[in-house]
């Protein structure tokens, strides 16, 4: 059953036939396991197939507490070192959600995010840094919402090559963002670390890449 749940999380939306093939089990058994998971709200059935359900999301939110406790000291140090606001995002129900932030205290003009606020994965540096490290099926599903999917795929490839994403004026006018994925040993990515800078200091963004990548590697190491 755990293998079925992991397959839905990795490849969803999926059908009972997809699960039977992926898990190498009989389709009747696959259907029975899916129904059991659905009854407990670990998965839910939509028009395109089975996807992760609210019970898993509740568990994920509980795990975010551990993510915050591990990441916060590193975030506070990074914010103090660079003088800018540092944000922590995770994936929740196919969107990027702000888990926590450490405010930059060096400048009067600074950027703030509201914890709990969310946005699509195809917006903002934090969203792109998360999206670039999802599986192909998830990426395809997200990119269906965009008119220019070729440009989006090129941006994803660039983010993978660089190890970070960059944005400006996508979520808030006058705000530039830089974000790196927090990678698990398996290569999966459920969270990202970002730095937000007002446009008046955006020429300094390239100098923040090194500190950001070092901090993201440190948090990834602590989580793994």
TrEMBL record:
<dbReference type="Pfam" id="PF09339">
    <property type="entry name" value="HTH_IclR"/>
</dbReference>
<feature type="domain" description="IclR-ED">
    <location>
        <begin position="48"/>
        <end position="224"/>
    </location>
</feature>
<dbReference type="InterPro" id="IPR005471">
    <property type="entry name" value="Tscrpt_reg_IclR_N"/>
</dbReference>
<dbReference type="InterPro" id="IPR029016">
    <property type="entry name" value="GAF-like_dom_sf"/>
</dbReference>
<protein>
    <submittedName>
        <fullName>Transcriptional regulator</fullName>
    </submittedName>
</protein>
<dbReference type="GO" id="GO:0003677">
    <property type="term" value="F:DNA binding"/>
</dbReference>
<keyword id="KW-0804">Transcription</keyword>
<keyword id="KW-0238">DNA-binding</keyword>
<dbReference type="Pfam" id="PF01614">
    <property type="entry name" value="IclR_C"/>
</dbReference>
<dbReference type="GO" id="GO:0045892">
    <property type="term" value="P:negative regulation of DNA-templated transcription"/>
</dbReference>
<dbReference type="InterPro" id="IPR050707">
    <property type="entry name" value="HTH_MetabolicPath_Reg"/>
</dbReference>
<dbReference type="InterPro" id="IPR036390">
    <property type="entry name" value="WH_DNA-bd_sf"/>
</dbReference>
<dbReference type="InterPro" id="IPR014757">
    <property type="entry name" value="Tscrpt_reg_IclR_C"/>
</dbReference>
<dbReference type="GO" id="GO:0003700">
    <property type="term" value="F:DNA-binding transcription factor activity"/>
</dbReference>
<feature type="domain" description="HTH iclR-type">
    <location>
        <begin position="1"/>
        <end position="54"/>
    </location>
</feature>
<dbReference type="InterPro" id="IPR036388">
    <property type="entry name" value="WH-like_DNA-bd_sf"/>
</dbReference>
<keyword id="KW-0805">Transcription regulation</keyword>
């Amino acid at each position: 059953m755990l293998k079925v749940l992991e397959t839905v999380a990795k490849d969803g939306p999926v059908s009972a036939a997809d699960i039977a093939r992926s898990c190498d089990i009989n389709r009747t058994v696959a259907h029975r396991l899916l129904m059991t998971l659905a009854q407990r709200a670990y998965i839910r059935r939509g028009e395109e197939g089975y996807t992760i359900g609210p019970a898993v999301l509740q568990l994920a939110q509980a795990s975010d507490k551990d993510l915050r406790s591990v990441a916060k000291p590193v975030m506070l140090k990074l914010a103090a070192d660079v003088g800018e606001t540092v944000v922590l995002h995770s994936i929740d129900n196919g969107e990027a959600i702000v888990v926590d932030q450490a405010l930059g205290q060096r400048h009067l003009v600074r950027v703030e995010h509201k914890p709990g606020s969310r946005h699509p994965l195809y917006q903002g540096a934090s969203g792109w840094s998360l999206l670039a490290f999802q599986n192909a099926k998830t990426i395809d599903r997200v990119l269906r919402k965009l008119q220019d999917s070729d440009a989006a795929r090129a941006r994803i490839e660039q983010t993978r090559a660089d190890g970070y994403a960059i944005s400006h004026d996508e979520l808030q006018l006058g705000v530039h963002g830089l974000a790196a994925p927090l990678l698990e040993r398996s290569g999966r990515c459920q969270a990202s670390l970002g730095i937000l800078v007002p446009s008046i200091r955006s020429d300094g963004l390239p100098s923040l890449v090194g500190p950001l990548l070092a901090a993201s590697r440190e948090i990834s190491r602590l989580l793994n």
